[in-house]
Amino acid sequence: MKKFLPVYVRVPLIFFAVFALMEYFVDSGDKPAFIKYPMISLFLFVFLFILIAIEITLSAVNRVMFELLSPEEKAQKELEESLSFKESTWFKNLMHKLTQTAPIEKEGELLMDHDYDGIKELDNNLPPWWVYLFYICIIFGVIYVVRYDVLGADDQEMELKKEMAQAKIDVEEYMKTAPDLMDEKTVVLLTDEPSLAVGKEIFTTNCAACHRADGGGQIGPNLTDDKWILGGGIKNLFHTITNGGRDGKGMIAWKGTLKPKEIQKVASYILSLQGSNPKDPKEAEGEVWVDDSAPATDTTPAK
Q1: Residues with Cβ within 8 Å of residue 231, at least 6 apart in sequence
Q2: DSSP assignment of 35-82, as one string?
Q3: What is the pLDDT of residues 77-123, one digit of tens each?
Q4: Of 41, 68, 189, 247, which one is least surrounded by beta carbons within 10 A?
C-alpha cells in the first residue's frame, strides 16, 4: 500500500476507517458516538497520535536502513522503486490527464524570458481540471440567471413558504381522519357492532364500578335516561370522558389512560344504552339534553 498511497493519504484513510467503524458499531442514539461518549474522542485522539508516530518511526527506520546500504544496493533499490511506480500506469495516466504537466526534461522549453533576481517562471498551461471546472461554473451561472431572474422560478425562500403552507394543509387533512388525533369537534358517533363491542369492553373494565355494568348508575350518574349533567351527544360525552367531570366531585380525566379512538368507542356504547331501562336505576340528574344541530321536526298536523 505504501507504494501507491502516500502518507498524507494513508493516515487519514486509516483514521477515518476506524472512526466510521466506531460510529457504526457504538449505539449512541441521535448523537455521534464521539460526542456522546468522551472516552471515544480520547481513544480516537490517541489512535491518531500513535498512527502518526508509527509512520514517522517507520520512515526514519527506512531512511536509516537505506543509508546503511552500499552504493550498488542503493542504486538497485531506487531502480526497483522507480519500476514499481512506473507499473502503476493507471495512476500516472490519470494524473497526466488531469494536469497535463510537461516532463522535467522539457522545462527548459517552457522558461519565460523575464528573470526576477534569478527566479524564472515556467509558461505552463492551466490544468484541464481547473479549466473544465471554470467552464462548468460559467454554464451554471448562465442557467441560474435565466431560471431565477429571467423566467422567475421560485427561489429557496419561496419554495420553503410553499412547502410549509402545503404541510399545514396536509396536517389539517390528516387530523380530520386520524383516529388518535380526534377531539370533540371532529368525533362522530359509531353505530357498528364491532366498535360498540369494543366500547362495551372498555366500559366494563373502567366505568362499571361507578356507573354499574348496565349503566344504571351507582356512585356515578345514570347513563340510560335523557338527562345529562354536562351535556349529552357524542361531542359533549367525548369531552367529558377526556377531560373529566365536575371539579372536586366529578369523574377523573381519562385522556391519560384511553386513546381518543377508545374514548370514541366507549362514548358511542354509552349512548347506545339510552332508553334501555335497567333494573332499579339511579334517579335522573341534570337536564334534558336536546341536540341543537339536529334538523327541526315539523309538528304541524296534516290536514
Answers
A1: 237, 240, 289
A2: HH-HHHHHHHHHHHHHHHHHHHHHHHHHHHHHHTS-HHHHHHHHHHHH
A3: 776 666 555 545 666 677 777 777 777 677 777 777 777 787 877 77
A4: 247
Q: Provide the H-helix boundaries in the chain.
A: 7-25, 33-36, 38-67, 71-87, 89-99, 107-110, 128-144, 156-177, 193-206, 208-211, 233-243, 260-272
Query: 3-class DSSP state for residue 1?
Result: coil
What gap in Å lies between CA 113 and CA 121, rounded to an integer?
8
Report CA-CA distances (Å) from 98 to 89, 201, 226, 250, 294: 14, 76, 88, 82, 80
CA distances 135 to 110, 130, 140, 147, Å, are 25, 9, 9, 18
CA distances for 157 relative to 151, 225, 257, angstroms: 16, 59, 43
The overall pTM is greater than 0.85: no
pLDDT band at 296 (very low <50, low <70, confident <90, very high): very low
Query: Does 1.10.760.10 match the CATH number of domain 193-288?
Result: yes
Residue 248, phi-psi category: left (phi > 0), alpha (psi -120 to 50), beta (remainder)? left
For 238-256, the pLDDT digits (tens) are 999 988 887 767 788 898 8
Domain boundaries, the chain: 7-87, 193-288
Burial class for 278, CB neighbours closer than 10 Å (0-12, 13-18, 19+): middle
CA–CA separation, 106 and 78 (whole Å): 23
The closest alpha carbon to 206, from 155, 256, 143, belongs to 256
**Dist CA 22 CA 184 (whole Å):** 50
